[in-house]
Design goal:
The structure is a single chain. By secondary structure, this protein is mainly alpha-helical. It has a domain at 94-271. It is 65% helix and 1% strand. The protein has helices spanning 20-45, 55-78, 95-120, 128-131, 138-168, 181-195, 206-223, 227-245, 250-268, and strands spanning 174-175, 178-179. A two-stranded antiparallel ribbon has the order 1-2. It starts with 19 loop residues before the first helix and ends in a 13-residue tail after the last helix.
Length: 281
């Protein structure tokens, strides 16, 4: 299956059905865990401790899990017709709208997370960077940075905001005379996004991650584009990696953010279709 850019801009995910979202999630997680277990088994056959894998095994396992998300999204989307990049949100968006959405969502997310951290005395860091060996070697650091700041944002946004949220948005749920299907879809997507990080992040972090997933859905809805979502996801991961794990200086973190966004643009740019008006316009 190949995802093709298109010259026309039809309604995104117009042929998808809500049931496809949970079906794709279950399939993706099952496939991802199965593939990651194979990677771990191969590593174990070469002397790697399954409970404490080498950075290379942990990295490959993480990559195949995220690729399973993309594979599931493409498979279920293909059930309803040709694969179109625009359905997943690969649409150009004006810099003003895109940057504005990223900044607004980012500020809200960090303010709410700061309040949450104060109330719950949040502490600790995510487990994944240390499992990827960011402090053990330069090669491990580069591999971890590419995965955390480039591969994960592209794969996870394609699945969660591109497909999962897109399918759930077909809900038509009326409350007090208003259609709340999109809002409920954003809430459910945020929750599932948070739960998807069980094992790679401490339990206390799942709530902020779920809220981030919710905010990314609002960005996707407001801009009708996946690019601002991928950008915010990458920026957040870059800041978390650079500040919490590596304790880098501002210049190094800026270079990580800029480099990641440039690579993401080079990889996903060819999929883009002409910009569209924001939701409700």
């Amino acid at each position: 299956m190949t995802l093709h850019p298109t010259t026309e801009v039809p309604p995104d995910g117009s042929n998808w059905r809500p049931w496809m979202a949970p079906a794709a999630a279950i399939s993706a997680f099952a496939l991802g865990l199965f593939a990651a277990s194979i990677v771990a088994a191969i590593g174990g056959s070469r002397g790697t401790n399954a409970s404490n894998p080498t950075p290379a095994v942990a990295l490959i396992g993480s990559v195949v899990f995220d690729l399973s998300l993309v594979a599931a999204a493409l498979y279920f989307a293909r059930l309803r017709g040709p694969l179109r990049a625009s359905d997943f949100g690969y649409r150009r968006v004006s810099l003003r709208l895109g940057i504005g959405a990223v900044v607004a969502a980012g500020v809200i997310y960090y303010v709410v997370t700061a309040l949450y951290a104060t109330l719950t005395r949040l502490h600790g860091t995510e487990k994944l960077p240390s499992e990827l060996g960011v402090g053990k070697s330069t090669a491990a650091l580069v591999g971890a940075a590419v995965f955390v700041c480039v591969i994960a944002p592209i794969a996870e946004e394609t699945f969660f905001r591109g497909f999962f949220f897109g399918a759930l948005r077909r809900w038509r749920i009326t409350l007090a005379g208003r259609d709340v299907g999109t809002l409920l879809a954003a809430i459910v997507t945020g929750i599932v996004f948070g739960l998807a990080h069980v094992g790679s992040a401490p339990a206390q972090y799942l709530v902020p991650l779920a809220f981030l997933g919710f905010m990314l859905c609002l960005v996707r809805w407001r801009t009708r584009s996946l690019y601002p979502c991928i950008a915010l996801h990458s920026i957040n991961n870059s800041l978390a990696l650079g500040i919490n794990e590596l304790h880098w200086e501002a210049g190094e973190i800026f270079a990580l953010v800029a480099g990641s966004l440039l690579v993401i643009t080079a990889v996903t740019g060819p999929l883009s279709v002409p910009r569209t008006a924001p939701a409700g316009a």
